[in-house]
Amino acid sequence: MSTRARLDLSITLVTDAALCGERGVPAVVADAVDGGVRVVQLRDKTATDDNLLRQLEALAVVIDGRAALLVNDRVDVVVSARERGLPVHGVHLGQGDTAASVARELLGDDVVIGLTANTPEHLATLRRMPRRDVDYLGVGVIRPTSTKPDHPPALGIDGFARFAAEAELPCVAIGGITLADVAALRHSGAAGVAVVSAICAADSPRDAAEAFVAAWSGR
């Protein structure tokens, strides 16, 4: 079964090297996956191609097949990683990145493609696209967040619920999400939540991940 078919979007970790600090991204990812994270998105806006590939090599080792591994923005890096045989499962694209249709042609049908979307205009564009091009939407921000200072106006949980009701794809909530938001987001139609600082900056990424998993499952 392909990664697309069995993708578990419930808890996604989006990495941030600065928030991971001296522990390093691989160590934080290892702990988070131990705690139940099911998607890891490598996001590093300043890294070179070679650096991203080295990071992906390290993450593939610590993940060891237990979570899907995606790259933020960089379709070219995903192509290179897969040519090297690295278990990289897909890419998450912003509205200003490579078009999803181009990414699908470059990467093929077995690769996961996520797309940031948060406005009615984005939804209108998606309805004109082939259904195969995008697997899920990253929708936010839910609350203002310092990890993305140029973010659009916060949707809040009610705004997310309205967006998800109109979308024809699974929607993952992102942006300033706390444990207290998880149950409400799931009840509002979220296919999952994506977090950055709540795990990357935690004293114990594993404990933080376990807490998000428990909140998602209603425990």
TrEMBL record:
Binding site for 2-[(2R,5Z)-2-carboxy-4-methylthiazol-5(2H)-ylidene]ethyl phosphate: T145, S146, T147, G176, V196, S197
Binding residue positions for 4-amino-2-methyl-5-(diphosphooxymethyl)pyrimidine: Q41, L42, R43, D44, K45, N72, T116, K148
Record note on cofactor: Binds 1 Mg(2+) ion per subunit.
Residues that coordinate or bind Mg(2+): D73, D97
Known pathway: Cofactor biosynthesis; thiamine diphosphate biosynthesis; thiamine phosphate from 4-amino-2-methyl-5-diphosphomethylpyrimidine and 4-methyl-5-(2-phosphoethyl)-thiazole: step 1/1
Enzyme Commission number: 2.5.1.3
Single Gene Ontology BP annotation: thiamine biosynthetic process
Protein family per UniProt: Belongs to the thiamine-phosphate synthase family.
Functional note: Condenses 4-methyl-5-(beta-hydroxyethyl)thiazole monophosphate (THZ-P) and 2-methyl-4-amino-5-hydroxymethyl pyrimidine pyrophosphate (HMP-PP) to form thiamine monophosphate (TMP).
Record protein name field: Thiamine-phosphate synthase
Upper classification of the organism: Bacteria, Bacillati, Actinomycetota, Actinomycetes, Micrococcales
